[in-house]
Write a structure and sequence with these properties.
By secondary structure, this protein is an alpha+beta fold. The chain folds into 2 domains: 84 residues, Phosphorylase Kinase, domain 1 (2-Layer Sandwich), CATH 3.30.200.20; 171 residues, Aminoglycoside 3'-phosphotransferase, Chain: A, domain 2, CATH 3.90.1200.10. 42% of the residues lie in helices and 15% in strands.
Length: 267
């Protein structure tokens, strides 16, 4: 049996005799464990430290989870303990990324996943109050962290990337804000087969911010179509004429954020 932070409180929820099994993951910086409780599969996430989960706000995540509670696409959270660093949820099935490779001859329900994801994005666009994602603070933290690195791969290139990011983010200042996941890749989309339900997990980087970042990421992954982006933009009273330009800039911002995050993690 694995002993976790605040084990006594967790044992009050699950019982002392629960056996947790580690879930191997190549993409997750947190530690993940699964168990069965009263016939229901459950997942425990033991949070990585701030050096590994750079840019994450656990407090903001807890507030976002409370904000989205009740939506079909929201995770079913049993308990989220920010101080002790763990989050207990129902197991929401395999990630869409894994399903692509594991389904074999079985057809992946791409249409249902797409429709539910599109609906989730519409719901998120209407959530405009909550913890705001501070992009300026994130850039400042990157400046501070990268200045401490003894041997960044290319100091001039990293500085140029930070400068480019600083210039691109304000171009969205006049766009309508909404709830943004900020890490909406196929690994954070789970398909609950028995419920035919899509669930979005890992809201560590979420906050009220620039929805275009999520749209660009999903469009690049082939999980969202250009016509669906047009519909989302029209519903938000954004000028459709700016869609192409906004998506290009948002895609570049995503690229820069990923490169800088990897630079910090690498060192």
């Amino acid at each position: 049996m694995v002993k976790f932070p605040n084990w006594l409180q967790l044992a009050e929820i699950t019982g002392d005799d629960v056996v947790w099994r580690a879930c191997p993951s190549l993409t997750n910086t947190n530690r993940l464990y699964r168990t069965e409780l009263n016939g229901k599969a459950m997942c425990l996430r033991v949070n990585a430290g701030p050096n590994d989960a750079f840019g994450v706000s656990r407090m903001a995540e807890q507030q976002v989870l409370a904000l989205i509670e009740g939506y079909e696409w929201a995770p079913d959270v049993m308990a989220c303990n920010v101080d002790e660093g763990w989050c207990l949820t129902v197991y929401h099935g395999e990630a869409v990324a894994a399903l692509h490779s594991n389904y074999g001859q079985k057809s992946l329900p791409a249409a249902a996943i797409n429709q539910q994801l599109f609906k989730a994005l519409g719901d998120m666009a209407r959530i405009i109050t909550g913890p705001r994602f501070d992009y300026e603070q994130l850039i400042e933290r990157y400046h501070q962290r990268l200045s401490l690195l003894t041997a960044p791969s290319s100091p001039c290139r990293v500085q140029a990337q930070l400068d480019e990011l600083s210039n691109l983010l304000p171009t969205f200042a006049n766009t309508r804000p909404g709830l943004v996941h900020h890490d909406l890749h196929p690994g954070n989309l789970c398909w609950m087969e028995h419920q035919q339900r899509l669930v979005i997990i890992d809201w560590e980087y979420a906050g009220i911010g620039i929805p275009w970042l999520d749209y660009a990421q999903l469009l690049s992954a082939g999980l969202l179509t250009a016509s669906q982006v047009d519909q989302l933009v029209s519903a938000q009273a954004e000028p459709v004429a700016t869609v192409s330009s906004n998506l290009q800039r948002a895609e570049r911002i995503n690229e820069l954020l990923e490169v800088l995050w990897c630079e910090v993690r690498q060192h």
